[in-house]
Amino acid sequence: MSMALTRQKMEGKFPGIFSPNQSARLEEMVDEVKAEGIERDNNIRDELKEELTALTKEMRQGRVALTNDTRDLKKELTALTKETRQLARHTDEGLAELAEAQRHTDDELAELSRNVGILTKNMIGLQQAVGALSNRFGFDLEEFVAALLSPYLERYYGISNLTLEQRYFDLGKRVSEEVDLVGEGEREGSLVTVIAECKTTLKGSEMRRLVRKLKERVVPDLEGKEVVLVAVAMNVHPTAEEVGREEGVLVVPYSYINRPELGKREIGGRK
What we know:
Layout: H1 2-17, H2 20-157, E1 165-172, E2 175-187, E3 190-202, H3 204-218, E4 226-236, H4 238-247, E5 250-253, H5 254-258
Parallel strand pairs: 3-4, 4-5
Antiparallel strand pairs: 1-2, 2-3
C-alpha cells in the first residue's frame, strides 16, 4: 500500500521534471525494481519457508528419535529394575541359605565340642588306667626279675647267695635315691653288690640316664665294694647295648633270665 502511494507521488512529479519519454522510462524502471523486490521477497520467503520446513522436519525427527530413545531407555530401565529385583531376591535367598548353613555349622561345632569333651575325658581315664597298669606291670616286673636274676647270675657269673630287693640310698639333706633291686652275694669268696634297674623298654638315652643315676648318686655310697651294674628290660634297643658296653653295664633282656638256656650275656649285652 505504501509502495503504491510512493509510485503515485513519483509519477506525479515525473512530468514536471522529465520529458514524456524519460518519465515513461522511469516508470518502467520503477516497475522493474518493484518486480525484483517482490521476486526477491518471494525468494527470501521461499528460502525461509524451506528452512522452516526443514527445521520443523528435523524437530519432528528429533522428537521421534527422542521418543524412541525414551521408549528404549524405559525398556532398559524396566529390564534393569527386573534384574535388580531378581538379584535382590537371589541375594535374600543366598543369605537365608548362608544363615541356615551357619546354623548347621554351629550345631556341628557344638556337637564336635561335646564329643571332644567326652573324648578328652575318656583319654584322661585311659591315661590313668594305662598309668596304673604300667605301674602295676613295673612292680610285677621287678618281682619277677628279683626272683629270676639271682639264679641267672649264679649260673653264668658265679654270684651266689644273692637276694635282691628294692632299696633307697640316703644321699643326705633329706634326699634319697630309689633303686629297683639291690643285693649282696658272693663270688670266689668275696662280697659282690649287685645293683639292677628294670624297664619295659630300654633305649640308649634311657640307658645313659640310668648310668648317670647309678654311678653318680648310688655307687659312691658303696665305696670299697665290688659292684656289678645290671639293666634288665623286656625290650632292649641296640643303642642301649652300645651304651652298656661303653659304661661296663650288663644289659640283659628279660627273656634271658626267664629262659636261662638262651645263654650268657656279656657286658653291654652281647652273648
